[in-house]
């Protein structure tokens, strides 16, 4: 999927605070400390699942966006084009959005006791939202606003038959506590897709050789979307870990 920010800007009217995490407390919220680097993550229990409520930020190495592989694990930080892990961790983008992982890295990046969610895990999440009143406007499947963070998304005043896309009325987002962040991604061929308009999350489910599935939200979407075509495993996307049962 290619993003055309100049087209989006024709209908979008502002940008929220990109580097601010949602700080609302949830009754089912917890914390988890990654023993590998001491990073502390918020977690959220949704039905029988426990998810990290932040993008994974584990960064053993870092590569510039021009580096690519479908076999070797690679890690990227938005708009950082160097190889210095310590410096990459000082950037605002790292603090806000975590790390982009190619699929080989994503498969093994979650800490012990957690794993990269597969398509069944993602589907269980969307089913839980639909069955427990999280669909916006009471319309089945309209779960985008319940998942998306309150801040960071490009705001939109577009009015249509479904005026409850993620970018509208940002204060109504994130009723689930999942806090999906519009981090963008490391694009195929290098460079970074813009933050503010889209969130891509890897699935552990592979479609075929060198292509794996992703789930994504866009500021003009009303729901979490499964990309049936999949994406090349060299692309760098965000990771949300789910706790082992």
| Oligomer designation | single chain
- Please report the total strand number as a whole number: 15
Number of domains: 1
The succession of helices and strands, N to C, reads HEEEEEHHEHEHHEEEEEEEE
Q: End-to-end span in angstroms?
A: 33 Å
What structural class should be given to the helix and strand makeup? alpha+beta
The radius of gyration computed from the alpha-carbon positions, rounded to a whole number of angstroms, is 17 Å
How much helix is in the residues?
Answer: 10-25%
Helical segment count: 6
- Globular, elongated, flat, extended or rod-shaped: what is the shape? globular
Major beta-sheet overview: 4 strands, antiparallel
Identify low-pLDDT runs.
Answer: 1-27
Q: Bin the strand percentage.
A: 15-25%
Describe the structure.
By secondary structure, this protein is an alpha+beta fold. The chain has one domain (5-243). 16% of the residues lie in helices and 24% in strands. It has six helices and 15 strands. Strands 11, 12, 13 and 14 form a four-stranded antiparallel beta sheet that branches. Strands 2-3-4 form a three-stranded antiparallel beta sheet. A hairpin with a 2-residue loop joins strand 3 (40-46) and strand 4. It is globular, with a radius of gyration of 17 Å. The two termini are 33 Å apart. The model is unreliable at 1-27 (pLDDT under 50).
